[in-house]
Q: What sequence folds into this?
């Protein structure tokens, strides 16, 4: 079922939803000169002419999150201040990135789901933003250009077109002009990625390619690529004390990055991976081999959103990196 | 399980709980054993996440256990362990766990066992050794090669003296022979084990990564089949439940599938 509605009507609907949902979407964060997912008041706040700098994950898996409060010997898990559910306007790549995060946080190992992720994830519903693709994305190459995981879909043009899938939202649009609308998905991106033929049999050979060494100097290990990635889930824990000498404090978790020099460093300074080339190899393998092999999915971890491509201060193109590796693999 | 029970179960896996330190026994200048009150069950080779609020959290192997306690033998080397060394008898240590797959102890029973360990690598095998020391009825021949840098770094003097009564022991120091110790790296002593005469046996190797690599290679040279060799990995971990990503090697999470691995798997894992 499809509808054509005005901006005013859509905003009225969002306002009506605000009692039950916190509504998020990619919008300008002016102080930071970034487009990030934040609470929406109007559907027109959704930035349509460019990809957001940060991915969707920060809506419910924030950069820094208190896990536990310590007060003497008492340990209390943090609470969720707002008991509303979350409705997130997002493009197909971002919705698909959550499918990847779900694997790590809710399906990695038996009976040990992540409490802090699970309690937020169960609140999430998606509103699909129809997307025509941007300069740096390659979602078709990664097969993450389409999704059917949404409550309703919107095409934001002069008018707004809506397809409602979740019956819970159908009533909101009753009385609106019925039209034939189905969201379209990106069919071809300007950029294409050729998935390298990494297999169990050649894993070691591919990891030992001279190819990786070029990143030893070129990459500076800033971790920016992981920070903007919608499928990177790694974190560190950090303890904070409120006042010196006090026994009260908190344990947070903060996004981490496999590109940081310290990622594998244990007490005493030993590192399992000691070069940026080794870190790059680890990241690319995870995105295009390890994850898919571990979870037996049809899809790789990378969703082709292209944010890492935009973020790298050293202008290391992830697209070129993966494509060059695909070529190298052919020559093995 | 109701949804609430599922969520409570999730918190239990992640939440550190306070435990009383019952005793602190100094091992060397840099290492001590902390005996901590604990009533639950642990299996040989498992680890706990130990923490001190305001300081941090790290995975530490169980080095001893008994009625109402577990022990951790800790080297003062990082932020958390320095914090732990500031604690004493009666202090509170926070823990969660145990985590990880243990040694396949049942498979080791009634068969010869060769244990090769270096430095603090003796901690994760000590409860395994105690198991066979205390249960001679299920023990076969036990060979123990334990190496340390020098005599001042040698751990578990009392335990090693006891083990020498029942096991075939080689204690060795990197810096050379001295009273009670032979000289040289553990790898130099592996060929002394009469593997060909042992029949159906198992080999356990734990120590620093370089030592484990060379000890594994030396065992293979001695014609030990890979499936008879077991190792335990030590990695950085922030969660111990397969989420934080730090311990991942290839498609394997050491906290979930390890820390104990058969060598057929471990020898193919690489960073």
A:
């Amino acid at each position: 079922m499809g509808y054509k509605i005005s901006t005013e009507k859509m905003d009225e609907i969002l306002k009506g939803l605000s009692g039950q949902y916190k509504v998020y979407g990619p919008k300008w964060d002016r102080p930071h000169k970034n487009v990030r997912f934040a609470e929406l008041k109007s559907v027109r706040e959704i930035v349509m002419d460019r990809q957001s700098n940060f991915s969707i994950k920060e809506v419910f898996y924030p950069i820094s999150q208190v896990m536990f409060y310590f007060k003497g010997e008492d340990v209390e898990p943090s609470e969720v201040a707002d008991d509303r559910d979350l409705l997130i306007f997002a493009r197909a790549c971002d919705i698909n990135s959550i499918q990847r995060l779900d694997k790590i946080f809710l399906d990695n190992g038996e009976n040990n789901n992540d409490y802090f992720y699970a309690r937020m994830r169960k609140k999430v519903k998606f509103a699909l933003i129809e997307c025509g693709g941007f300069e740096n994305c390659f979602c078709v190459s990664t097969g993450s250009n389409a999704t059917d995981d949404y409550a309703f879909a919107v095409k934001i043009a002069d008018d707004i077109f809506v397809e409602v899938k979740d019956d819970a939202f159908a009533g909101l649009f009753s009385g609106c002009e019925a039209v034939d609308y189905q969201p379209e998905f990106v069919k071809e991106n300007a950029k294409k990625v050729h998935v390298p033929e990494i297999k169990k049999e050649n894993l070691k050979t591919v990891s030992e390619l001279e190819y990786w060494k070029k990143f030893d100097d070129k990459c500076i290990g800033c971790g920016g690529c992981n920070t903007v990635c919608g499928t990177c889930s790694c974190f560190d824990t950090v303890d904070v004390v409120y006042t010196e000498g006090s026994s009260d404090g908190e344990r947070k978790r903060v996004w981490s990055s496999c590109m940081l020099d310290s990622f594998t460093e244990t007490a005493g300074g030993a590192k399992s991976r000691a070069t940026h080339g080794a870190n790059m190899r680890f990241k690319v393998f995870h995105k295009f081999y390890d994850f898919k092999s571990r979870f037996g999915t049809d899809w790789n971890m990378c969703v082709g959103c292209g944010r890492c491509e935009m973020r790298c201060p050293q202008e290391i193109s992830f697209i070129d990196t993966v494509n060059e590796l695909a070529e190298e693999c052919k020559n093995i | 399980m109701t949804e609430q029970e599922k969520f409570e179960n999730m918190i239990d896996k992640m939440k550190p709980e306070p435990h009383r330190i019952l005793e602190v026994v100094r091992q060397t200048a840099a290492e001590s054993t902390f005996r901590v009150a604990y009533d639950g069950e642990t299996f040989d080779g498992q680890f706990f996440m130990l923490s001190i609020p305001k300081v941090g959290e790290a995975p530490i192997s169980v080095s001893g256990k008994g009625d109402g306690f577990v022990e951790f033998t800790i080297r003062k080397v990082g932020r958390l362990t320095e914090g732990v060394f500031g604690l004493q008898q009666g202090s509170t240590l926070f823990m969660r766990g145990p985590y990880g797959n243990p040694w396949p102890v049942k498979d080791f029973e009634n068969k010869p066992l060769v244990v090769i360990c270096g430095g603090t690598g003796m901690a994760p095998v000590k409860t395994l050794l105690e198991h066979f020391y205390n249960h001679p009825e299920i023990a076969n021949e036990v060979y123990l090669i334990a190496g340390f840098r020098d005599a001042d770094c040698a751990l578990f003097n009392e335990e090693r003296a006891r083990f020498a009564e029942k096991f075939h022991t080689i204690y060795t120091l990197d810096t050379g022979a001295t009273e009670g110790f032979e000289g040289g790296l553990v790898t130099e002593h592996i060929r002394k084990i009469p593997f060909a005469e042992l029949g159906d046996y198992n080999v356990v190797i734990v120590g620093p990564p370089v030592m484990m690599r060379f000890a594994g290679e030396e065992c293979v040279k001695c014609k030990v089949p890979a499936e008879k060799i077991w190792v335990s990995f030590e990695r950085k971990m922030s969660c111990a439940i397969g989420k934080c990503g730090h311990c991942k090697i290839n498609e394997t999470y050491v906290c979930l599938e390890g820390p104990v691995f058969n060598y057929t798997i471990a020898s193919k894992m690489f960073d």
Notes: The radius of gyration of chain A is 21 Å. Chain A touches chain B through 55 residues (CB under 8 Å). Chain A has two domains: 2-61+79-179, 200-232+259-330.
